[in-house]
Amino acid sequence: MPDQKIILPPGNLPLIVVIGAGFAGIELVRNLPEDLFRVLLIDRNNYHTFQPLLYQVAIGGLEPDSVAYPVRKIFSGRKNFYFRIAEVTGMDLDARTVATSVGTVRYDMLVVATGSQANFFGMDDLKSNSISLKSVTDALDLRSLILQNLEASLATTDETEREALLSMVVVGGGPTGIETAGALAELKKHVFRKDYPELDIGRMKVTLVEAGPELLASMSAKSRKAAEHFVRGMGIHLLLNTQVKNYDGQTLSLGNGETIPCKAVIWSAGVTGQLPALFPSGATEKGRIKTDEANRVTGYENVFALGDVAGIFTPSTPRGYPMLAPVAKQQGKHLAKNIIRQAAGSEMTPFSYTDKGTMATVGRAKAVLDFQKLHLHGFTAWIGWLFIHLMYLVGFRNKMIVLVNWMWNYIRYDSAIRLIIRPYKKKT
Amino acid sequence: MPDQKIILPPGNLPLIVVIGAGFAGIELVRNLPEDLFRVLLIDRNNYHTFQPLLYQVAIGGLEPDSVAYPVRKIFSGRKNFYFRIAEVTGMDLDARTVATSVGTVRYDMLVVATGSQANFFGMDDLKSNSISLKSVTDALDLRSLILQNLEASLATTDETEREALLSMVVVGGGPTGIETAGALAELKKHVFRKDYPELDIGRMKVTLVEAGPELLASMSAKSRKAAEHFVRGMGIHLLLNTQVKNYDGQTLSLGNGETIPCKAVIWSAGVTGQLPALFPSGATEKGRIKTDEANRVTGYENVFALGDVAGIFTPSTPRGYPMLAPVAKQQGKHLAKNIIRQAAGSEMTPFSYTDKGTMATVGRAKAVLDFQKLHLHGFTAWIGWLFIHLMYLVGFRNKMIVLVNWMWNYIRYDSAIRLIIRPYKKKT
């Protein structure tokens, strides 16, 4: 429907169009005053996704509604706020229009907060045969695939096929990678062992592949060592200094010439900015949208980029800020303040990032936490991780449900959600 | 894979093959002794579905894991028990074999407990364009469709189209029908009104169509009247004595010549037995498998049918027992006892149904309950309904999560899960 316009209720206030209901987009809209602007938020889903916990959906620790929150509910009762489920199909920054699957819209100010996507560094086979954990459907697909593979392993008499069906490889030793590998190892030990008595569960193998010499490269030396200790202690097959070259759905080929037969590869080895369709390439660099320190897109007065997709390249941040939820949230909040300043006739101020620490969890009572000079690992770090993730989850009901789930998981080892609701089928 | 056999661990005990992990199949296996038989349970899903609460998934009251429970978990630790996810593709009752999508198996005893499916009475257009609530995916499809229609209504300038997008018709005035219509009316009043401020929500219309003169035909006169009173009081457009003729996805045609523009039709006006593929037609009647009073299939010594699919046609039950969960559970338990009797050299005894009452709920504090001479309606009946459904839910964790959800729903009106995880696409 190329000619159709997005119909909005009439109004005279300037229209801010925000693309993306991730951490940055939500935080921006939350902090904008209701009566100075009209806001149109666009996302391809009708919910905000709490991405740091997607792996919990994949391994059956949580249901989708615990990590996804409806956009309309977040902004319930807000004045001059509109939301549309739409895919952005193009844009004309000179004409100030955005084209979407439900029509075009003319903006007074545009904010691009489209986040990031998995980066396969040009390896197309890997892209089409592996699963990355960027969306709720990815996570549900992975949950189905792992269960389907276990069931299929009971039906085969081919030993090589069975080995591949019982082999799961996680690529990338960052937080998502070690969290997923750790959770799979715990599923094997506590859940699958009981669920599949016909199977020699010792043959199920979880492998974690990391190109660098250590796990959690961005964390402290203490945390890196502790994470490696946890990973090895859980029986995860750890391959450091190992690159991945190709994956045909059956065999994963490594840079050192070795191969791993496996029917499930989880990709968490790299992300890149998710540029909206037809965004001017002159305004992008290293897969992100180039902005000044106030998140204003280079060359466009009234266009801003936030979060993972935004690249603030300065001498102190030559590669831009890390693609993390706290950066996105802080940028969203900061831009809201800047927009208010500008409306009041003041200059915008540069963004600066307050690092509140980083953390990762490998399993029950096995987490690492860096906060300035503090480095925790083990049970204390794990409680910290639980508490902080719970605090950040949007919505009180979500928190209560997640807390009940986690408490229950801790008391019993057996509570994983192992439903194959929609069987996974390979993308074609 | 026609030649492949289902591989089971070796064993000398007689093999009972049970098709269907519904109420009847689960209850049968639960009550069989572990060391007299080997049991192979086959289902197309890896979970048992608590069908009476599927409508709660559809309207966002519960997540799938609250009404679905993994089969392997139900029978965790059980000896001589095997489970396979498979579709039954055929059977040869003389050769004592069942063919499935994962291979064939030879049984010593076969139990068919495949349940029921929606009955469209030959109206193919209705079948392909409406949604019936028989599975978790049906329920999730309906949830997505309703939300997609509301979103789409914001994008159209065509008044007729908008009317159809905001119109939902439930066909069938049995428990499922009135529960679904009631829940939709509550969503409209408490959730959608707030979520869609751009919309004149008064234009959203819920219609309940029933062919007979009253709702809940199988219940007491008091309950029938109370249910009708509740339904009318909730603003549901009620059409009694009205048949449905055709639905093309856009317009529902009624028997009286009138039409209703609507983009969502929920079919709960009839069910019929779900006969397994290639089951001998000589052993079926009225869409069910003919059995004697011990659930033994007419003409086959070692084949039994249970629950919705079983037809025990006697002078006192000329149409067979009603297709209800309690009947299925009681038959499953009774057959287990009979199998044990037979193994001990005794005769099987006839099944008799103990009616423990019926109930239905229309909304918050609006339920009806018949138990022998007791007829309750309103808040007391609703609490009874909540309590009994909770008691019947398999698994302690499910109960706790459902209870938290329901308590929360009762305190606030706003907790519906309104995520479009996988957009609904029409079957083709």
Can you walk me through this structure?
By secondary structure, chain A is of the alpha/beta class. Chain A folds into two domains: 15-44 and 86-118 and 272-343, FAD/NAD(P)-binding domain; 124-269 and 364-411, FAD/NAD(P)-binding domain, CATH 3.50.50.100. Chain A contains twelve helices and 26 strands. In chain A, the strands form eight sheets. In chain A, strands 5-2-1-9-22 form a five-stranded parallel sheet, with no helix packed on it. A five-stranded parallel sheet of chain A has the order 11-18-12-13-14. In chain A, strands 6-7-8 form a three-stranded antiparallel sheet, with no helix packed on it. In chain A, helix 1 (23-31) runs parallel beside helix 10 and helix 6 packs antiparallel against helix 7 (159-165). The longest helix of chain A has 21 residues, at 175-195. The first copy, chain A, starts with 14 loop residues before the first strand and ends in a 17-residue tail after the last helix. The mean pLDDT of chain A is 91.
Mean pLDDT of chain A: 91
Portion of residues within helices of chain A: 25-40%
Biggest contact: A-B, 50 and 49 residues
Number of helices of chain A: 12
Outline of the structure:
In chain A, 32% of the residues lie in helices and 24% in strands. Chain A has 428 residues and is α/β, with parallel strands linked by helices.
List keywords for this structure.
homodimer, FAD/NAD(P)-binding domain, alpha/beta, globular, 428 residues, five-stranded parallel beta sheet, 2 domains
